[in-house]
User: Which sequence fits this backbone?
């Protein structure tokens, strides 16, 4: 039996072409422009990097194996919490509401400040509910859930796509009582993050999103080290790698995969759909092989996603009855030994 796809994506620099974090902070600064107590974005960013470098230089455990690397990533939780506390105590988002965040996101997409990665719309059009891409979700360790929803709403409206069913799991900027940040004079509303700090937290969110439905095949797409656990736990893990050169985060992930012995191959080398029956037994198993793609056009043109997209085209955009199986990379490698002789550069 062919299994439907549950596609789960990272947001910053995966669904989008660049980080949106500076835009999030701009919302706070625009509403607190005249406050002399709020440090600059550069000051906050530099403080985070100082903490990161200090932690990295004093971390004594080895990072030669995958379990060791996952422990390193989890050790970053205290650094992330400290950064969050720094932003909270500075009152960056003191007078900001969720409506402000949403409105800023919509405008950023319309003004071209937030750009979706090439082919994203074509991929989301593959949501058929008939064995193609049945569900789409977004998991992010960044801020903010409302910003992501605003960007998605604006981009989908422009492309004529229904994005209402996309499940978004991310941190949010809210007040003490779970209400939008208040505007009481002189009151610093607390900023809360819903415990999405590290790669492990992100994996837990992905597992919760996936639920107990074993019929779905989980496909995860990400671009950085915080995506590592999700990439490896998914049935198919796909790393985004910019055309013309990797970003700093992509380069970090690339180096990590090489160091811990995880092979990553171009998605164009994915096995064809005639392997379907051989792949049935691989559902739900952890893999130590990943794929990389430059953008979502690469995904759409791969043997499996391509079947979904082309089938929908031939039906004049009607719901397709075509169902596809996504292969476990280690099985594809076994059937195509020439592809396993080189550790092809990967990368989220």
Assistant:
């Amino acid at each position: 039996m062919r299994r439907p796809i549950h596609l789960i994506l990272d947001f910053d620099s995966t669904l989008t072409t660049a980080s949106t974090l500076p835009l999030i902070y701009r919302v706070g600064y625009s509403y607190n422009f005249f406050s002399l107590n709020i440090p600059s974005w550069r000051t906050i960013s530099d403080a985070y990097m100082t903490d990161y470098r200090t932690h990295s230089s004093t971390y004594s455990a080895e990072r030669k194996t995958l379990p060791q690397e996952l422990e390193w990533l989890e050790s970053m939780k205290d650094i992330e919490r400290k950064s969050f506390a720094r932003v909270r105590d500075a009152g960056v988002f003191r007078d900001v509401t969720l409506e402000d965040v949403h409105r800023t996101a919509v405008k950023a997409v319309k003004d071209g400040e937030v750009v979706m990665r090439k082919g994203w719309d074509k991929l989301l059009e593959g949501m058929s509910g008939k064995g193609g891409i049945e569900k789409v979700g977004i998991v992010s360790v960044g801020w903010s859930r409302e910003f992501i929803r605003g960007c998605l709403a604006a981009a989908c409206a422009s492309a004529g796509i229904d994005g209402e069913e996309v499940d978004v799991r991310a941190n949010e900027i809210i007040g003490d009582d779970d209400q939008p940040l208040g505007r009481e004079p002189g009151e610093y509303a607390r900023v809360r993050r819903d415990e999405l700090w590290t790669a492990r937290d992100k994996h837990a969110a992905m597992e919760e999103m996936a639920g107990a439905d074993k019929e779905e095949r989980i496909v995860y797409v990400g671009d950085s080290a915080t995506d590592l656990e999700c990439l490896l736990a998914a049935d198919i893990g796909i790393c985004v790698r910019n055309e013309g050169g990797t970003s700093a985060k992509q380069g970090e992930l690339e180096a990590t995969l090489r160091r811990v012995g995880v092979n990553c191959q171009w998605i164009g080398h994915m096995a064809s759909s005639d392997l379907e029956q051989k792949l049935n037994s691989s559902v739900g198993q952890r893999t130590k092989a990943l794929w990389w793609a430059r953008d979502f056009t690469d995904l759409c043109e791969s043997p499996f996603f391509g079947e979904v997209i082309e089938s929908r085209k031939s039906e004049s955009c009607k719901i397709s009855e075509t169902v596809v199986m996504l292969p476990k990379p280690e099985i594809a490698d076994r059937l195509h030994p020439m592809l396993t002789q080189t550790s092809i550069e990967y990368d989220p």
